[in-house]
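step 3/5: co-fold with S-adenosylmethionine
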Amino acid sequence: MFSPEGPSLRDLVVQALSSVEHGYDLLAPRFDHTPFRTPDSILDATADALRPLGPFGEGLDVCCGTGAGLRVLEAVCRGRSTGVDSSAGMLAEAGRAYPGAEWVRADARALPFAGAFDLAVSFGALGHFLPAERPALFAGVYRALRPGGVLALPVGAPPPISSPWYWVLAGFDAVMRVRNALWRPPFVMYYRTSPLTALRTELAAAGFTVTTEPLEPLGWREDGSPRCRLVLARRP
Ligand SMILES: C[S@@+](CC[C@H](N)C(=O)[O-])C[C@H]1O[C@@H](n2cnc3c(N)ncnc32)[C@H](O)[C@@H]1O
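step 4/5: write tokens
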């Protein structure tokens, strides 16, 4: 699938029938050859948007996977970079790509940091958290940041109902709901459970001051709205 170095269809099915942690352990060696790894265009647009707010000190990549977000942290942070993820396999790949960074294995719903970072980023991972789990995730990031610290999250605009992507994502979520009703352990990954309005409300409830800005290099939709916004949640 995706490319000769990428996972086979069988690999993806085995991953989808595993737990999130074990599934990513299995996928890790081939993850960078899948579309699930955040593309450099999104990383670079995020770094461009953060640069005027920086430079930052210490940076944290939440659900870092193989380390995609380090490209952003290294561009805008002067201090140490840390990645946190629950998959040992993904962290091993990240450690190979960025040996100078720190890699921590932990569940993002119980982050083990307090007042340690000036910037936190997270890419491509919100769908792994049920809405009921996000307050613990955001409270942990809030705790991990120093006062004045910022959490940056790129959030894509949902495709309109007339777009084939609307139906692809809705179909994926429906298949995952059936899978999770019938099979244990669950594999939580839903594309349509993190709308911008809910995120803003939940981040504000966690204590953040929330703003958004368009990621202009990623372009605009036909209705004039941005394809992707950067959510900036600042710990006062
Ligand atoms: C789609 S990958 C994204 C990886 C990377 N951020 C990127 O953009 O390429 C999602 C990552 O979230 C991690 N993850 C999922 N649930 C997690 C949790 N509860 N705690 C920590 N990491 C988690 C997975 O192990 C995986 O590495």
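step 5/5: annotate
The beta strands are 59-62, 81-85, 102-105, 117-121, 145-156, 209-214, 228-234.
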